[in-house]
Specification:
By secondary structure, this protein is an alpha+beta fold. It folds into three domains: 14-206, Histidine kinase-like ATPase, C-terminal domain (Heat Shock Protein 90), CATH 3.30.565; 211-331, Ribosomal Protein S5, domain 2 (2-Layer Sandwich), CATH 3.30.230; 405-594, Ribosomal Protein S8, Chain: A, domain 1, CATH 3.30.1370. Strands 5-4-3-6-2-1-7-8 form an eight-stranded mixed beta sheet. Strands 9-10-15-12-13 form a five-stranded mixed beta sheet, with helices on both faces. A four-stranded antiparallel beta sheet has the order 18-19-20-24. β22 (495-500) and β23 (503-510) form a beta hairpin. Bound molecules: adenosine-5'-diphosphate and magnesium ion. The site of magnesium ion has 5 residues, from α2. The site of adenosine-5'-diphosphate (ADP) has 23 residues, from α2 and α4.
Length: 607
């Protein structure tokens, strides 16, 4: 047979097209699961059971109690571009269902052994279709429960190149499991069950509330460390929960954004979440959040990628700003009301602390007020972004009335009563519902940092001239860095004179640095300005970084505070924008409520 010329154009058969499309939509067993679960959700199921064999390589099976299909619909459903969800292009702008491309079933059945069994509730008998690598092998009437069951076996059996790229069984299973958990979060109103190799691994009952599903998935302890988020701007609603900065992870897996109930990612969301936690987390750690973002369907372009996981937004800047505002507000003590109504104000002197027996108290530290310079008062929180027009109305699930938080005294730790300290590092407070352990040095660091940042923003730093200006000898590398950052150091409140020969004269320091040693401070700041980090930072970020280090040093140089100072520290800390961690992300305090104490002492279970 003569060889065909290479450039003959042919129209590809449906069969080939499906296999190509499968490459886009279906990458691995988890993508099969995603498409099938989305279909079940669209079919109105309130019970979905997933079964996985050998990490999904052998089989992914899904059973739902949704609307089912009659024989003709089922036959149509496996055709490419067959969908019951849109009619023409305009509909893409207003998508309320999970699927709409009409590709998934055709694609999956072209690269696997595929069995569909389905029955609408109002019909007596169901339909069973068997497809192998895109070829319809058998159609028959069958008895089956109402709903749909789809078995996808031997994925990519006819595309060896793809099969080769599948990962190990456990990796594929991990992908499946995390996807399943995101679905569980997105749909508390659906009962979800996951069985793996015959064993039930996850089961989530129908829950009325988002937070109950979060607790099912992540445990009550995580829930306790989340703050409610409730925000509205025009047609954009953001609600759900965001973690205290003390709750963090090594990756972004526990940052879930549900855009109109669809799990989605977008660089702008990740950016906004990161921004909201600036200067509160340890390096390389990521916050936790579970958020619903509801907006008009035409703000979201879900048609960016066949798997619809990554989305794009029309008004992306608005979205970013609103998300930052929503999260920072809920992390601030003056943000939307917390779950627990703050108790009435009471400030009994220590000796009258309820339920506390003085004989058990730790010996008090000698008061040392002269060693502990008073902290500057925190300014009103003007650094927040502008309030968008519409004030948030209470979401239907929030049982608490919204109050105008800005007019209130911060309610955080209002009822805390000083109990004592552990001798060196920790101050203990009793609160209405448990125990608070504060690290005064960390608290000081946070307070100083917020003060320094505000001062810098306003361009009004307070410098304190040293009684005796100090000469600091640096090594050449340090000297170079200090020289380079002179303006930034000045912005912070340092007054430096260059002495030549790698020597500097420190004439004044930021007033709030107290007794910090000028030489070591300057040297540490030189280390902070390593050239590589400098390149990556904006001037503001760099100044914030310098300020962070100063605060750390300043806090470290202070002596142990007296009981009265501890109480004052806690009060000032409560007024901070981000009171829970230092700018380096270490906790400023730990709160253990009675439940947690009981759990720790084993008093939450019967003998
Ligand atoms: P899409 O979801 O984009 O419409 P699919 O190929 O995933 O495309 O599904 C094609 C059609 O098959 C759907 O539009 C729906 O009508 C029907 N279908 C798929 N899965 C189910 C199910 N579990 N229950 C009822 N109908 C289903
Ligand atoms: Mg679909």
């Amino acid at each position: 047979m003569p060889a065909e010329p290479a450039n003959i154009i042919r129209v590809l058969s449906d069969h080939v097209c499906n296999k190509i499309a499968a490459g886009e939509v279906i990458e691995r067993p988890a993508s099969v699961l995603k498409e099938l679960v989305e279909n079940s959700v669209d079919a109105g199921a309130d019970r979905i059971e997933v079964e996985v064999l050998q990490g999904g390589r052998k089989a992914v099976i899904i059973n739902d109690n949704g609307c089912g299909m009659d024989r003709d619909t089922a036959l149509l459903a496996i055709e490419r571009h067959a969908t019951s969800k849109i009619r023409d292009v305009d509909d893409i702008e207003h998508i309320h269902t999970m699927g709409f491309r009409g590709e998934a079933l055709a694609a999956i059945s072209s690269v696997a052994r595929f069995i569909l069994t389905t029955r609408p509730a109002d019909q007596l008998s169901g339909t069973r279709l068997e497809i192998e690598g895109g070829t319809l092998r058998n159609v028959e009437e069958t008895g089956c429960p109402a709903g749909t069951r789809i078995e996808v076996r031997n994925l990519f059996f006819n595309v060896p190149a793809r099969r080769k790229f599948l990962r190990t069984e456990s990796t594929e299973l991990n992908n499946i499991r995390s996807l399943f958990r995101v679905f569980a979060l997105a749909h508390p109103d659906i009962q979800l069950i996951l069985k793996v190799d015959g064993r039930e691994l996850e089961r989530y009952p129908v829950q009325a509330r988002f937070e109950d599903r979060i607790a099912d998935l992540h445990g009550a302890q995580v829930l306790q460390n989340l703050k409610p988020v409730s925000f509205q701007h025009g047609e954009l609603k953001i609600h759900g929960f965001t973690g205290l900065p003390t709750l963090h992870r090594s990756d972004r897996r526990d940052q879930v954004c549900l855009i109109n109930r669809r799990p989605a990612t977008a660089p702008i969301l990740a950016y906004a979440i990161r921004e909201s936690y600036t200067d509160t987390l340890p390096k390389g750690r990521h916050p936790v959040c579970f958020l619903h973002l509801d907006m008009p369907a035409d703000w979201v372009d879900v048609n960016v990628h066949p798997t619809k996981r990554e989305v794009r937004f029309g008004p992306s800047q608005l979205l970013r700003d609103c998300l930052i505002k929503a999260l920072t507000e809920s992390l601030q003590p003056n943000g939307p009301p917390a779950e627990i109504e703050p108790p009435p104000p009471c400030e009994p002197p220590q000796a009258q602390a309820p339920q506390f027996h003085p004989e058990h108290r730790q010996p008090e530290l000698p008061p040392a007020p002269e060693n502990y310079p008073p902290l500057p008062p925190l300014p009103p929180q003007t650094a927040r972004p502008e309030q968008p027009a519409a004030p948030p109305p209470p979401p239907p699930t929030d049982p608490l009335p919204q109050t105008d938080a800005a007019d209130q005294e911060p309610g955080l730790w209002k009822d805390a009563v000083y109990l004592g300290n552990t001798g060196d590092r920790y101050a203990l407070f009793q609160t209405e519902d448990g125990l608070l352990i504060m690290n005064p040095s960390a608290a000081t660091e946070r307070i100083l940092f917020e003060q320094a940042r505000t001062d810098m923003e306003k361009g009004k730093v307070a410098s304190q001239a040293l009684l005796v200006p100090e000469t600091v000898a640096c090594d050449p590398q340090e000297a170079k860095q200090i020289e380079k950052r002179k303006d930034d150091l000045q912005a912070l409140g340092f007054v430096l004179a260059d002495f030549g020969g790698n020597h500097f004269l420190v004439e004044a320091m930021p007033a709030w640095m107290g007794d910090a040693d000028p030489a070591s401070t300057l040297k540490e700041l030189a280390m902070e300005t390593d050239p590589q980090a400098g390149k990556l930072s904006t001037p503001k970020q760099l100044r914030d970084r310098l300020a962070r280090s100063c605060c750390y040093l300043a806090a470290r140089s202070r002596r142990n505070p007296s009981p009265a100072e501890c109480t004052r520290l806690l009060k000032t800390l409560a007024k901070c924008q981000m009171p829970y961690t230092t700018p380096f992300g270490r906790p400023t305090l730990l709160h253990m409520d009675k439940q947690e104490l009981n759990r720790k002492f084993g008093l939450d279970r019967p003998l």
